[in-house]
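Course exercise 7: structure representation. Students receive a sequence record and must write out the corresponding structure in token form. The form below is the worked example handed out in class, using SCP domain-containing protein (330 residues). Read each field label carefully; the graders check that inputs and outputs are placed in the correct fields and that the protein name is recorded exactly as given.

STUDENT ID: A-19
EXERCISE PROTEIN: SCP domain-containing protein
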Amino acid sequence: MNLLSILLFFVLRCCRSNNFYDQFPYHAFPISCSLIGSFRNMKRFFSRKKLRKSKSDFTGEKTDPERHEHENGAAGGVPLPTEPVPIPQSKSTNIVNNVSNSYGDDYEAVCSSIGEESRKNFDAQLDKHMMQTITDVKYMIKHSKYTALSEVNFQRSCLDAHNECRQRYGNENLCWSTELAEMAHAWAVKLADRGRVLYPELPGIGENLILKEANEQSHLPTGQEVIQEWEKEAQFFDFDKPRWNPKCQRFSQVVWKDTTELGAARYWNTANNCVAVVCFYRPAGNSNAPGEFASNVPSRDCSMSPIRNLGTQLKRHVTISTPERAVVSK
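STUDENT ANSWER:
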């Protein structure tokens, strides 16, 4: 076998020469034709193998590394010169390039339509979220204990109840002060959080405070109930000798004549089950200066005196003006 292999290798090397058959005729070899065959057939066979193995151009088809190694081995391990193979592009890149090159503006139109569709979906989801938020706000308004709507109603009813009480005692109506209302809200939060009554020291501002337990919204005091409770203190006030009395100081502040502004707030602390009501007045009442109670707190209820009640109504609704006298020039 070794001798046969050497002979085949020698024949293979000699076949590369074009003058091989002229120099060495067929009958010069002592090898049987049945063992080796025709030299011309061997040349064509090895030439095809040589051409097939030397082909290095990339055709775009996937090469089989096992087949490549097998063919190199069949060639006797002779290294063959190779040329640089171009790097193939990815399929996704080819697809994008083909689409963009073949369709041009259509490809951009498709991308823009996809972006427009996603934007519409996002807008629809945002609109749905906004509608849900509006629905939640409407639901919260129905449950007024969680919104500022109930506090606004309380403030309005508190102002109306104050003015009704003052009218019964012949005094003018109070005006609403947003500044005092904000101060009252801050103080009401402080009282409800601490759970005890604290009196602020505000110059020129009077106060009325309530702090009580509240477990449900139905137990929250209204503005009308607060003023009715304070007005009941009138039974402890001495109208014949008006002076300061700790048992009726809230009543005297409500009907104090020189007071012109009111700011009220109510705050419910659900954690402590405590509700605080704060009313601030300006100018402050309950002054201990001589003659202040006599001039600011009426001597009796106006409802018991029809004439005084009528005078108060006329003063509130009718403005009487004195005509100016004409100046005659001489």
